[in-house]
Amino acid sequence: MKLSVSIQVNGRTYDREIEPRLLLVHFLRDSIALTGTKIGCDTSQCGACTVLLDDVAVKACTCLAAQADGCSVTTIEGLAPDGRLNALQEAFWTKHGLQCGFCTPGMIFAAQALLRVNGNPSPEQIRHALEGNLCRCTGYQNIVRSVQAAAAAGVR
Amino acid sequence: MATTVAAPARVFGSGIRRREDPRLLTGTARYTADFTLPGQLYAAILRSPHGHARIRKIGSSAAKAAPGVVAVFTGADTEGVLQSIPCAWLVPNSDLKVAPYPPLARDVVRYVGDAVAVVVAESAQQAYDAVELIDVDYQPLPATVDPEHAVKPGAPQLHGEAPNNIAFHWTVAGGDVDAAFKAAEVVVRDRIVQQRLIPTAMETRGALAHYVPATGELTLWNTTQNPHIVRFIMSLVTGIPEDRLRVIAPEVGGGFGSKIPQIQGDFITVFCSMKLGRPVKWIESRSENYQSTTHGRDHVQDVELAATKDGRILGLRCTVWAGMGAYLSTAAPGIPTILHGLMLSGPYKIGAVKEDVYGVYTNTTPVEAYRGAGRPEATFMLERIIDRLADEIGVDPVEVRRRNLIPPFDNGFDVITGLKYDSGNYKGALDKALAHAGYEQLRAEQAEARKKGRYLGIGVSMYVEICGLGPSQVAGAVGFQGGLWESAIVRFHPSGKAHVFIGSSPHGQGEETTFAQIVADELGVSVNDVKVVHGDTDITPMGWGTYGSRTTAVSGAALAIATRKIKEKARLLTSHLLEAAVEDIDYANGKFFVRGFPDRHKTIQDIALMANVAWNMPQGMEPGLEATTSYDPPNFVFPFGAHLAVVEVQPETGHIELKRYVAVDDCGPQINPMIVEGQVHGGVVQGIGQALWEQAVYDANGQLLTGSLADYAIPRADVLPDIEVLSTVTPSPHHPLGVKGIGEAGTIASTCTVYNAVIDALEPFKVQSIQMPLTPERVWRAIAERKGA
Ligand code: FES
Ligand code: FES
Question: Which residues lie closer than 8 Å to B154 by C-beta, 6 or more apart?
């Protein structure tokens, strides 16, 4: 059995026939070839797959593509469409908030979600907000600094 | 009015933003899992659910008939096609027993995760579905998982080749250790268990193999730290000649040692592509990664220290049982031996050392390098036993360290294990850490807090590490089945932009930036005009890979020398073009000029153009502006440092709060301090993870109980304080840039720093030892036991 879905991703609508069990993360990576969203686990722990679903940060491995039918998704590819980094990406760059970069797309969206609700978070609040996103390279410290810098630059 | 113009900031030493980041920040970087080739198939591997079992029969007909399935292969199919997976570090004088390590198990499985069969299908989902349909009839066998128990009589045996499961017995000895213990006024002992850890790079392992039968050529995209080693080993195992074998390490999402070895999945994927003549991709799930990609540490250590009453160390004697897992992984035997035993003198003058290391086969995932690889295990032993000594003789632990430190030296110091450290100022690092932390003040606060029933602890650990591996002659002498040199090519294009090609393979450490800084600093070009290329064996020159904090130390040296060759050629060409004597050509800020006549000059861009068009070259000079250097270091480099942690323990709950962490590291001159700091942060946090949270647990049957990220606790953002990062600078005398390495430093020091702090906090309870990780329950139990006693 196949399902038809229509999902808007980064402003473009994709109509696809999918298997009902297809996860959103596999829809993004395999069905429409947006591989910027990463998979780091199989137990919904790592947050590498975090995207915005109708402006809410979700782990795309915990969500069926069918559930995103009719919704709008933002992935990492959607943040700098003309190649110019947005202020949040810029902050991660300036503060060395990434090393291997594998956790980065998910971190960016977890940070974005925090800044939407709290434009001036304390380091503790940032650390708390990022607890569902694992990074093995940075020790998180420069990620915290990146989010602080983004907040200071007015990212909301 | 005179205006002063600030001298241009030197690009070497400035914390500029990384060149690799824009692609990583925009999702345009490509990791192995992100590639799809036309006609690509997907492999899913069936893995043993048993720690030890005989395979009686494999039924694969249902899987073969499943939708989308193209083929199912088992170990029998690899007969005559794939050789056993080789071990590449054959430590001499250790009676090493290398048991066969089949890419797909043949008759017996020896750990949970051992590869049993593979399904290849048109889609990944179909492959995973069909794996479920394979029916394996296992006869379970008794298992053994603990390295100390596995050597005892009656333990289940893994390999006929290795009686009592002993893979090797290695000894390091220097000085007269028996005399030291005879002369000792104080002897302290400890038993330390370095628990098994799982490296957990956020990208799991995977491979995409494309074999073309018509040409016999294989292209392999692989999650690896060392593509040239992959090409070599893959060639040995598959018989594909190295000239037909191209290995690409695209973007790689962290490694920490787990992407050094060649693992079963790599060979299986290549085998499937060879058999089917189509591209085949295999990407591990995290659970599969935890079972089947390598683990780290797993030592049981008995340590004894002989000293005088005033705290002078006379000798160190240790026995270590090092778990190797079910098979010897690529570099495994060298880790608890060469990279461990030789480092037992640390930053101290110790007159006698003896260590016996038993490498032991157990029914567990193979053990490999994990960040620090051998050196954290050595540092922990030494730094822990020194705290025990301090406690025994009633002297402050910092003072005991001071009494034993090697005095500052800048060109060689011989330690009793046979190594020659390059340079060190250990006291300098210690003083800086103590001054920054306010050590006296902290001790006063601790005393105050205790009066109020609060338990603060202060822990210190120092370290020296061996890295920048290393002189190839030494590599050969210690049984490493390869070299350890590196090469670099610098190529200037007509427009004055340059490419750098290196054989090593960074995967997050930032060398695309720091190496551009090296070239920019030497030749006055912009960092943005230098592109660093790595990770493709068809394009890059030979190199042995990125591990052991060796890339900047070895590759960076090759690059510095190649860049200087460019400079020399530019000087010669300038002299020719300006018709001036070579001795009169000076260089400053990107310009070659006639001494005393700065206007008579050529920029490096001018020279790049003139060398490339080659209209007017001096007699005998080759066209082009390109240089290649292969660099084999004369010695290792030995970074060092002193770390300090402050914790508070709640005795009622066993909860540990890490309040402060101070790291002083000395990796010589820093090319990019921002990147150095980032390496320290990440390293320190991994070491803290070992002290407080991480442990791979097996039950007696060899079941991995921590088989996913739901059960294995790597550090999260909300459980850590900021790390206070400082440094001292002691150049290496033998490196062309004086630099050492910083990739592993943080991990090497931090585990024992935090551990010592926790035990210090519990001093009123006389707790001396708790098994890591220091979970609240274990801490609480340790206190309760002492109270009971
Ligand atoms: S892939 Fe790990 S949480 Fe989604
Ligand atoms: S940068 Fe490598 S996992 Fe976060």
Answer: none
